[in-house]
Specification:
By secondary structure, this protein is mainly α. The chain has 15 helices and no strands.
């Protein structure tokens, strides 16, 4: 009895391989923007991590890094209850009744640096991890905001432009308020967009990001009334909900005031003095006129954002309104 010849399995195997490769290619095409975002974040992480272990030197980067690292170290050395969760700026060991508090800014930045010191040890690189991670998370948030508003392509382009601008590359690893505040401001915006589009859970995310951003630095509060105004004009939900972000901001200010009171009521006067100094209110010296302000903003914008972005930003905003 003759044996039947075996059927050739090569064609079916080749088909399976081709199908697998085809599915793989489709997956790459489908997630090309997410893959592109990953590449952008790797490049951005490499760029802003350059010199992560360098010692603190003169200049903004070194001065801020050393100052807030010192405050973070005080949190660990004395304990949070003794420092009252506030910025204790004494460089040498002293008794708690001799603490000098730096309350020009809220305390969250130094608390985050203290947390990273507790986890990784007291190093320059562990302090710089706080702004670096905040900056990289901001790139991802810009992508998500772009996806929510105009689609993945717009989100990818926006995140690439955000990561490429000089201000991000230069200040993205500086131990200061800007990277962390930017992260919480973008989180506020993303959560607001998702909340106003019907996902009520994001109202809590919005309030939480307002609180954390407000406990990081003051620019957070500039965004709150703009979001409330946008809600009143464009939302079809209960208009009273527009005041929820405002109440969250007021509660945050209240918490900070309680901390100042805990540190010592005299620091309210110090806050008032620094406010007058920053705004030049009541000063005898020449005040800055509105035209001076515009000129200064243009110079900063041109140097830190670059002229193409200054043109593209308003142009894109107008285009979105026309659409």
């Amino acid at each position: 009895m003759k044996k039947k010849p075996k059927k050739n399995a090569a064609p079916s195997k080749n088909k399976a391989v081709a199908s697998h490769q085809d599915n793989k290619a489709k997956g790459i095409i489908k997630y090309r923007y997410e893959i592109g975002l990953g590449i952008i974040m790797v490049i951005a992480a490499t760029a802003i991590s350059y010199g992560i272990s360098d010692p603190w030197r003169q200049g903004h980067e070194g001065t801020n890094g050393a100052f807030y690292s010192m405050i973070a170290k005080n949190h660990l050395d004395y304990g949070l209850l003794k420092t009252k969760f506030a910025n204790v700026q004494n460089p040498l060991p002293v008794s708690p009744d001799q603490f000098g508090f730096y309350l020009n800014h809220p305390p969250l930045l130094s608390l985050l640096v203290a947390l990273f010191f507790a986890i990784f040890g007291e190093h320059e690189w562990s302090a710089r991890l706080v702004p670096i991670l905040s900056s990289l998370a901001s790139v991802a948030l810009v992508f998500l905001i772009g996806c929510e508003l105009w689609g993945k392509r717009a989100g990818f382009i926006a995140s690439a432009v955000f990561a490429a601008n000089p201000m991000f590359l230069w200040y993205g690893h500086m131990v200061n308020f800007e990277p962390v505040t930017t992260f919480f401001a973008l989180l506020m915006l993303l959560s607001y967009i998702r909340w106003i589009r019907g996902d009520s859970r994001y109202l809590w995310v919005l309030c939480g990001s307002i609180f954390l951003g407000g406990m990081t630095d003051w620019p957070t509060y500039f965004l709150v009334p703009l979001l409330a105004l946008h809600y009143l004009v464009f939302s079809n939900q209960k208009k009273a909900l527009a005041f929820v972000p405002i109440l969250a901001a007021m509660a945050t200010v209240g918490v900070f005031c309680l901390q100042v009171l805990w540190a010592g009521s005299k620091y309210f006067q110090a806050l008032a003095d620094i406010y007058r100094f920053r705004t030049d209110l009541g000063a005898i010296s020449k005040t800055i006129t509105f035209s001076d302000l515009l000129k200064r903003l243009y110079e900063y914008g041109r140097n830190l954002f670059t002229l193409p972005l200054l043109i593209a930003g308003p142009a894109g905003f107008l285009a979105s309104l026309i659409k």
